[in-house]
Design brief:
single chain, 352 residues, two-stranded antiparallel ribbon, 1% strand, globular, NCX_ion-bd_dom_sf, membrane
């Protein structure tokens, strides 16, 4: 696509974004059905089914980059995507449900299960940061210790969330009073009436559409960024991360409109916990230890992702009711921190 003019690349980018948006709506609706049919529960459904599906573009980009040896873009997209996907919660808070008397997203979706999901993200990113300091020669058959720890932390996190979805030794089983009037996995609305097979087929088609459109987004965006003179790191952490976050935004808004605030937040935290697993995949495919070769920008983005996640974890515990500029105080804090973080990333990129 490098030979195409910039205006045509923008058109292709916008068309692929539209496909991702529509596919995301169907992913959310069918996940709603599959959660009920398969008894996954809202939180676990967001953590596994919807989170993995909406991250298909990142999976395709990582595999393609690892095969072609372009690890810099893949790592920047993964770690930059975590920070940017957390900011998607700001947009969901702002536009997901509007009206007089509507409380912030973290007030409505407050649950210890969601807090646990946020802590899984922090744990996985902590391993990522520590793993960057290990020697690059510490690799056997394409597997590194830090890669194994990331996968292990993710799997343990899934098991803990599954257990928390059924029982927690807290009042109201970990659900906040005056919040969403249902326990995890029990929605306030009736999911669309369709068979499990039909839901699975629609889910598969929507996932495939997300995958193909996500790859087109990456190719068109990369070609456009090359013409604009953006570096691979900056492109991966900003434009590419924004493009691959569109499924989360689409599914999140749809989930909130369906009355499932928990699923919207679980999708974000579940996707963010899953993304570092792709670093293990990149190492396995390329045969090179990815994390030890991470640069200052990658470590910086990981730390930014931890900070933004912790802000929302605190918001879920304190459940702010006051809105500023149409969003909760925690969302405003995340937005300000992220913008400051992007300014810092530009400074690092310029210094490098």
């Amino acid at each position: 696509m490098e030979a195409l003019p910039l205006w045509l690349l923008v058109v292709i980018f916008a068309a692929a974004a539209a496909v991702v948006w529509v596919a995301g709506i169907h992913l959310s609706k069918t996940t709603d059905v599959l959660d009920k049919k398969l008894h996954l529960g809202s939180a676990l459904g967001g953590l596994i089914v919807l989170a993995v599906a909406t991250n298909l573009p990142e999976i395709a980009i990582t595999v393609s980059a690892a095969i072609n040896g372009n690890i810099e873009v893949a790592v920047g997209n993964i770690l930059g995507g975590i920070a940017l996907q957390t900011v998607v919660l700001v947009l969901l808070d702002l536009f997901g449900k509007r009206g007089k008397g509507i409380k912030p997203l973290t007030y409505r979706a407050a649950s210890l299960t969601i807090v646990l999901e946020a802590l899984v993200v922090v744990a996985v990113l902590g391993i990522v940061i520590a793993g960057t300091q290990l020697p690059s020669g510490l690799i056997v058959a394409g597997i590194t210790p830090q890669g194994l720890l990331i996968v292990l932390a993710w799997v343990v996190g899934l098991l803990l969330v599954k257990r928390a979805g059924s029982t927690l030794p807290w009042h109201e089983n970990g659900n906040a009073p005056d919040g969403a009037p249902h326990q995890s996995g029990h929605r306030r609305h009736t999911p669309p009436k369709m068979s499990t097979v039909k839901a699975a087929v629609i889910f598969g088609v929507a996932a495939l559409g997300t995958l193909v459109a996500g790859v087109v987004l990456e190719r068109a965006g990369e070609a456009a960024s090359s013409q604009l003179g953006l570096s691979g790191i900056l492109f991966g952490a900003t434009i590419l991360a924004l493009a691959t976050s569109l499924p989360e935004l689409s599914t999140g808004i749809q989930s909130i409109r369906q009355g499932d605030d928990n699923l919207a937040m679980s999708d974000i935290f579940g996707g963010n916990a899953f993304l570092p697993v792709l670093l293990f995949v990149a190492t396995l495919i390329s045969g090179k230890a990815v994390l030890p070769s991470a640069n200052a920008s990658d470590i910086y983005l990981s730390a930014l992702g931890v900070l933004l996640t912790l802000v929302y974890a605190v918001g879920l515990l304190f459940r702010p009711q006051k809105k500023i500029a149409g969003m909760g105080i925690d969302s405003l804090a995340v937005l300000v921190i992220y913008l400051a973080g992007v300014a810092g990333l530009l400074a690092i990129s310029a210094a490098g």
